[in-house]
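Collaborator request log, item 7. Partner lab (contact: R.S.) asked for a structural prediction of Type IV secretion system protein to inform their binding assays.
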Amino acid sequence: MNFTEQEHVAARLDGFDPEELGALKHRLRLLDPFMVDDDVQEIAIDEPGGAWLWKSGHWSYVEVRDLDFAYLATLGRNLANFTKKPFDRFNTSLSGHMPVTGERIEMTHPPTCPEKQHYLNVRKHSVRSFPHDHLVEMGYYAHTRHEFALTIPDDQRKRIEAGLLDEERALWEMAKTGNWSTFMKLAVESKQNIVVSGATGSGKTSYLRSCVEFVPTYERLITVEDTPEMPLPNHPNHNRLLYRKSDTNGEQLEGATAKDVLHSAMRKTPDRVFMAELRGDEAMFYLSGVLASGHPGGMTTTHANSPKDAFFRLAMLIKQSTTGGGIDLKDILMLLRQTVNVVVQLTFDRTKGRHVPAIYYDPIYRLSLLD
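Returned to partner:
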């Protein structure tokens, strides 16, 4: 991995020591054949002597002769020096990300992993940005089912349906007929609040980036992320805000929390705020303080196995937060059903590849909660 002038400047701007970044990149040069291969998305080192590569939808093993324990131990020290975090037997997990190129690095130290081993994962930042039409051609919607609430009788549905807005009625018809590519385009254009759900590696961020291209180019956009993964090349009026990942544990750290960054975003007159992932205390503010307070059209991601699970996952994040702890879980779920309009589930398997097994959309149920 060559150390570029752009990375040198980025390191200084981010508060890192360029010399430590240079040492880390020099140590990572052993993995260069995999780093420059666009088909390799992740590198996993489980033991000295070789690496597992997540490539073209499956793991494959390659021998790396010089990848021994001494190499991994030195790499751990390089990463610790670069991130200014301890990495030893009392601080056994270490995370970092590379400026500009965006790789995420995770290391594990004994005794959390076996003695005389260090685990290493390098997750590459995807530079590919597929147009949504390309995802359609890849079969993303070939097996998609429409999910909606099953608790509303047909006669009640017909009565409530009369109160739908024109775009809601159009989206409802598209969902019922499975016209998903046109559905997603209209969902973004009409400022529906969208959650993309799935496991790590299912392609949530890439899918989200493809949907961002449906947003009119004249809108002012703000992204809130822990790692810069959502470039906005076609939306010149934008801010890309970053928040720190870890808790302070009483220690003063550089940067701001996700919740603090969201508060800042709201003072920047955005048309839309995109949250890369909901994972903690910021969930309540993003849903109620952003999406439900005059700034619809947001998009975010979460880790869940289905659209239904995504609602419960978000509800539990809110319930566990300082602001949501006193709210009944049933009330939180009602808030979510009123605020989140669309849930897109993503998954990956060896037979079908990356695809969308289900999309939740039910504006009639949302209106019934207000009926």
